[in-house]
Design goal:
The chain is α+β, with helices and mostly antiparallel strands. It has one domain. The strands form two sheets. The protein has an eight-stranded antiparallel sheet with strand order 1-6-5-7-8-9-4-10. A two-stranded antiparallel sheet has the order 2-3. Strand 2 and strand 3 form a beta hairpin. The longest helix has 16 residues. The chain is globular and about 40 Å long.
Length: 206
């Protein structure tokens, strides 16, 4: 696991648009750079979900969100990694936010990343980092931050909102059909199938 600044991450992703398919709209917010990823493909579609109602649901979602954005099985050697990108992480009480940021800093320190949380808000996970990745998705779910999860595999990304919903955006109809089928396979979690389609937006952040 390594970390990057938002500018570093957006710069190299934008330079590889042909590979990742993503565009990034820039704009300052809260006195710092702010970028919103989106697909310029005409078939792009977005699904809107409510947050789970309990702690086990959060743990389940942190794991399954990675699965839903990737065509590969997570227990296979085909999974190649992804990025958790924190954005609006100062919405609620400062004391809770400090706890969340400190937790992430302590985990990152074990990988040699000693910069403060806000100095490098994009966390890059390699193919052997799958076990730790859900912890980085649990943080925005628990502490009420905005965050993106962008798979290393082209075609889908997730957005977590501090307003207690999350979205999945896919680039093509084929990926959308595969996503809906995969969601339907999670019979044990009925809340996961309670979704609606919304208009794909270049500005998902509310």
């Amino acid at each position: 696991m390594t970390s990057e600044t938002e500018i570093e991450y957006v710069s190299h992703m934008a330079a590889n648009h042909a590979y990742c398919g993503l565009r990034f709209d820039p704009g300052p917010r809260y006195g710092r750079p702010w970028h919103t990823p989106w697909y310029d493909h005409t078939e792009a579609r977005t699904l809107h979900f409510k947050h789970p109602a309990n702690a086990p649901g959060f743990a389940y979602l942190a794991r399954v969100m990675v699965e839903l954005t990737d065509n590969s099985r997570l227990d296979s050697a085909d999974w190649r990694g992804g990025a958790v990108w924190y954005q609006d992480y100062d919405v609620w009480d400062h004391r809770e936010n400090v706890t969340g940021r400190t937790m992430i800093e302590r985990i990152r320190a074990g990988y040699g990343e000693l910069r403060p949380f806000g100095s490098a808000t994009v966390n890059i996970f390699r193919d052997n980092d799958l076990a730790i990745l859900p912890a980085f998705l649990l943080a925005p779910l628990i502490f009420g931050w905005d965050a993106y999860y962008i798979s290393q595999e082209r075609g889908a990304f997730a957005y977590i909102s501090h307003d207690e919903y999350w979205t999945l955006t896919v680039e093509t109809t084929a990926r959308f059909e595969a996503l809906v089928k995969k969601i339907g396979s999670h019979n044990e979690e009925h809340w996961l199938r309670d979704y609606r389609e919304i208009e794909p937006s270049r500005f998902v952040v509310s």
